[in-house]
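[step 3/7] fold_predict: job queued, chain A
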Amino acid sequence: MSTEVISQRYARALMNLAGKDKDVDGVAAALDEVVTAIAGAQLAPLLASDSVDNDAKSEVLKTVLAKMGGPKVLSPFVRLLQQKRRLSLLPEIATVFHRLADERLGRATADVTVADPMTSALQERLRKQIEKATGKSITLKVKVDPNILGGVVARVGSVVWNGSVRHHLDQVREQLLRG
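[step 4/7] structure written:
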């Protein structure tokens, strides 16, 4: 079974636990802290090492998680991952968990490409239009690319709205070539 499938299963299980406690955002934030703590404190090699006893690994992890606090569902979940030798999947599980949290809470990110920098007022107008079209709370990620010449290209998930001048010119060219 691929690591992606395994990560999705664990993330869905954690989402079910977080949903029961109605603390999806709290679990998401604490999950990020755990991923950062394990990577930042160089615990990952220790926890992945076959030369370190599993009981010792469990104690180290238990101590780290106790000091961090966080939602009550997270500590047993992370310790289960360690017992099942799946702790290396924690960053991928966190990524999937955030995607599931956004779906559950009706949030999405719109990747927006423009030819010139946008004012904050224009960004707010665009965000509201995309929210109206998707029915979700939108966060904009704006990128400037002069190659589109003008207009806007917006992507939310797999849906793309291409209102760029480059796209319209390409369409006109294709129509002229077809006759």
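[step 5/7] annotate
The two ends are 52 Å apart (CA to CA).
The helical segments are 3-21, 24-40, 43-48, 54-68, 74-83, 90-104, 120-134, 165-178.
exit 0
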